[in-house]
Write a structure and sequence with these properties.
single chain; about 325 residues; 434 Repressor (Amino-terminal Domain); Immunoglobulin-like; alpha+beta
Length: about 325
């Protein structure tokens, strides 16, 4: 009896230490051990919470062989906090901290300060064109194709938008391009490809932010839908390591494809998301690189306010 008590005390102390300092898999393993639950019972409790996770996945999670990343897996982690009688957000916090450490180990494409400065510049440039935050348009679909060149640079991208007007008289859209560090926005070219023509263009040299007015051939009435396509040629900056798109409002489908030059293929690619530029990255998920097309992609069926993107490692 005394031995069992000592063992329980040790398991509890180990759990407390793991919850404070992590990492996630150690804390999860300690919590399961402290509650004395076999993985089959943990899986059973998860199913009662409406979450399906295999015993193999649970085993990988507590060994550190894999990390929960998909939305369903993150739901499981929150359910585990309740099942294992842990403080709210304790396991989720450890996952987020792990994401931060992983991101910190990569060469940063842009600092937080530079993102804030770019946001301020963007507001100024859009105001200079008389463009409001939503412009009277609701996005039903946005498909974006990114090209990474032979020098590992952001060569350019093409965007196709499907929008619906929510007020009368809308006749334009303002596109945003945020070049990688070292970008020369005065040399960036904007091409109207379908159902639009290029209007005024403004840029800021220090941040690499460029905004371009795309003029429609008609004035939309409230409820009208419209499809247009444009491209941006860059290639002026150094090595590119990520591409992200921010959303101020809920919207429709967003698809992002990144295609790499045959002579410059990354070793791995990941999807990521952020609630804001100040928030840690979450939902990291490795993306398979298509050997034939040399590309990776993500699809968000319905976008929410925040940031979503793809990053990649060259070495």
């Amino acid at each position: 009896m005394r031995h069992a008590t000592q063992h329980a005390d040790f398991a509890t102390a180990e759990l407390d230490t793991a919850l404070r300092g992590g990492p996630f898999h150690v804390a999860l393993r300690a919590a399961i051990a402290a509650r004395g639950l076999p993985l089959q019972r943990v899986q059973h409790h998860l199913s009662r919470h409406g979450v399906k996770v295999g015993v193999t996945s649970l085993s990988y999670w507590q060994q550190g062989a894999r990390r929960p990343q998909r939305p369903e897996s993150l739901r499981a982690v929150r359910a585990l906090e309740e099942i294992l009688q842990l403080p709210d957000e304790s396991l989720i916090r450890l996952l987020a901290e792990s994401d931060e450490r992983q991101a910190a180990s990569r060469p940063a494409a842009r600092s937080y300060r530079s993102l804030i400065e770019a946001s301020d510049v963007l507001d100024r440039l859009q105001a200079d064109l008389g463009w409001s935050l939503d412009g009277g348009l609701h996005t039903l679909g946005h498909h974006e194709r990114i090209r990474i060149g032979a020098r590992r640079e952001l060569a350019g991208h093409e965007s196709q938008h499907i929008v619906r007007a929510h007020r009368d008289g809308v006749d334009r859209f303002v596109a945003v391009h945020h070049g990688d560090p070292g970008c020369l926005p005065r040399r960036v070219r904007v091409h109207a490809l379908e159902n639009c023509r290029t209007g005024r263009i403004r840029w800021d040299q220090d941040t690499g932010v460029l905004v371009a007015e795309l003029l429609f051939d008609t004035r939309l009435r409230s409820g009208d839908t419209f499809l247009f396509r444009y491209g941006i040629e860059d290639g002026t900056a150094g090595v590119s390591r990520e591409y992200a798109r921010g959303f101020a409002f809920p919207g429709g489908q967003y698809a992002l494809q990144v295609r790499f030059d045959a002579g410059a293929l990354p070793v791995r690619c990941h999807r990521f998301a952020q609630h804001s530029t100040a928030a840690p990255r979450s939902g990291r998920q490795e993306l398979p690189l298509s050997g034939l097309h040399r590309s990776v992609h993500l699809v968000e069926p319905r976008t929410r306010p925040g940031i979503v993107g793809i990053d990649w490692d060259w070495d």
